[in-house]
Amino acid sequence: MSGQDSANTTTSGLLHAKAWAEAYELIDLQLSPLGLRAIDALDARAGEVVLDIGCGTGQTLLQLAGRVGVSGQVIGVDLAPLLLDIAARRTASLGQVSLRQADATFLDLPSASVDAVFSRFGVMAFANAVAAFSNFYRMLRPSGKLAFTCWRSFQDNELDQFPLLAAGFASPIDERPFSLADPDHICATLEASGFSNITIQSHDENVSSGDVDAMTSVLSRVGPLGKIIRENPALRANAEHRLREALSALGVDPAVVQLRASVWIASARA
Asked: Does residue 223 fall inside a structural domain?
């Protein structure tokens, strides 16, 4: 990677974190049902140590802390200090939650030190997925658990496709969110990393951040459309107008505008 490429990547990450921080409560409303499916698959128990990869602003930390209780531990990992600051505020009263700023691929927790590894959409952008999952495998105790939620294809996801097409764009400019869209690729990656008892389940669910204005706010900040707007701010006004009009034309309950999200719920054992 050249110096310019690295600078562009850093800038893109900062813009994404800022957008996420601005709308995290609305984003949580949208993503929580999808993350909870993977938390159920993880089946974390009281007293266990759980590693949360890409914990973001901390909603999943709160949900996992409720599963492991005060006798357990939840370790949140994320690259973005801005998001970790929010997570720290939200979990300040929970002694069982701790945070690490790190690239999870190189996280240096001791070997065989955690009972479970979880992620809600935090495992799709690794430069070397096998290296990352191999590190998770190393940190897991024997028979430790892994479960995560990741996106299926762009074509399967109305949640991503609808706003992009509504704003006049044909395809995403970044395919990384869909890097695990192929279940065979997920299986091969996990097997190469040492995991067994791999299960991958397809799940579709209508999700929402609220009314037309709330959905417009979220979808123009994150996801494929959000990335285009962040990198081309002059497009925001027109894109938001077109998206709001398209959402309004759906003819659904104006207080709860839903779009279909299509994900994989993957689980495995060390």
From this structure: no
